[in-house]
Design a protein that fits this description.
Elements lengths: L5 E6 L3 E7 L2 H7 L6 E3 L2 H10 L4 E5 L1 H11 L4 E4 L6 H12 L3 E2 L11 E7 L5 E6 L8 H6 L1 H5 L1 E7 L6 H16 L3 E5 L3 H6 L1 H11 L2 E5 H7 L5 H11 L2 E5 L5 E5 L2 E5 L13 H14 L4 H15 L11 H7 L6
Parallel strand pairs: 1-5, 1-9, 2-7, 3-8, 5-6, 9-10, 10-11, 11-12
Antiparallel strand pairs: 2-4, 7-8, 12-13, 13-14
Helix pairs in contact: 3-12, 10-11, 12-13
Length: about 325
């Protein structure tokens, strides 16, 4: 196996996030499912944006947030995702390169606009996402093939469940996983959202059992994947399907399993809970980098918990403080 140039290469939806404070009454009036991700079309994106309170714009997308976290931890990250040749696409491209992530997927010249996610954040810090995918959904096998050299040079190839809606994306994920396996690299997947799991359960089950080495999910997503209300039953099932699984449980921390080993990782302290947007993405950042660096499950989980705690202490899904510095202050050593 050749030397890895990247710790993690992620494939996902290249999205610009618009975050705005909201009330439960606003969610009800607009028919927005609370604490979930709902796909919308371009017309709905325009009308909802007009109805929302003033907000902030920031480059986002689940897997893109993860590689941003990896960069903040001092890791080497790359990204495959699709933006249009427009203003939001330029913003996304500038932002991800500026934080040190390698990104050179060709922009879409003819087709829908760049994707955006309208995130309404209620006082309890829940985030309710209405997403117009646009160009972001159009990742294909050709994009994976174009990034083949980068993909083969990554310790871990990380796939975002949100991108799984189109058949072209499903084929792209299988192609990426097979390419990673042929290069003796690991493939990781995040389930992303309960609604996402319910839409694609058979396809997800097949992908997980046949192509995934590392699974990241929250408790609700894992229960949905295996059609059970019992956490121990779901944990036993995922242990049979993948080499490593990391399952977050909000304030209960996370449970990580690998073969016969199971580790519980407590949640890191949070001074102020502001916005849970990106908590799972940033847990994935710390955890995947820890695994890529050969750390123990417990230490990788701790890195994930520290990263998640930083992100929920402010609005937005990109770190505002150096995650590497925070990890070092918690006793984690870096070379």
């Amino acid at each position: 196996m050749s030397q890895a140039r990247f710790d993690v290469l992620a494939v996902g939806n290249a999205i610009v996030d618009v975050l705005s404070p909201a009330t439960d009454e606003f969610l009800a009036a607009e028919g927005i499912a609370k604490d979930a991700m709902t796909l919308i079309d371009e017309d709905r994106a325009r009308t909802l944006y007009a109805a929302m309170q003033p907000g902030t714009e920031a480059s986002g997308g689940s897997a893109a947030n993860t590689v941003a976290g990896i960069a903040s931890l001092g890791g080497r990250a790359a990204y495959i995702g699709k933006v249009a040749d427009d203003q939001l696409g330029d913003i996304f491209t500038h932002d991800i390169r500026a934080i040190g992530v390698h990104f050179d997927t060709p922009s879409l010249k003819d087709g829908p606009a760049s994707g955006r996610c309208l995130i309404n954040v209620t006082p309890d810090a829940s985030r309710s996402m209405s997403t117009f995918l646009g160009a972001a959904a159009l990742v294909t096998e050709e994009d994976v093939a174009a990034g083949a050299e980068d993909l083969k040079a990554a310790q871990i190839v990380y796939l975002e469940g949100y991108l799984f809606d189109r058949e072209e994306a499903k084929r792209a994920y299988v192609a990426a996983a097979e390419m990673a396996a042929a290069s003796n690299r690991k493939t990781a997947l995040t389930l992303s959202d309960v609604f996402c799991v319910e839409r694609h359960k058979p396809a997800f089950r097949h992908l997980v059992a046949n192509h995934i080495d590392i699974l990241l999910s929250n408790e609700a997503e894992l229960l949905a994947l295996y059609d059970t209300d019992d956490f121990d039953t779901a944990l036993a099932a995922i242990r049979q399907d993948v080499a490593i699984a990391a399952v977050t449980r909000s304030e209960k921390g996370a449970v990580i399993t690998a073969g016969d080993e199971t580790v519980s990782v407590p949640a890191a302290p949070v001074t102020q809970l502001i916005d849970t947007t990106g908590a799972g993405d940033l847990f994935a950042a710390g955890f995947l980098l820890g695994i890529a660096q050969g750390r123990s499950l417990a230490e990788a989980g701790q890195m994930g918990a520290i990263s998640a705690a930083e992100i929920i202490s402010h609005y937005g899904a990109r770190p505002e403080k150096s995650l590497k510095l925070l990890a070092e202050q918690s006793g984690i050593a870096f070379d």
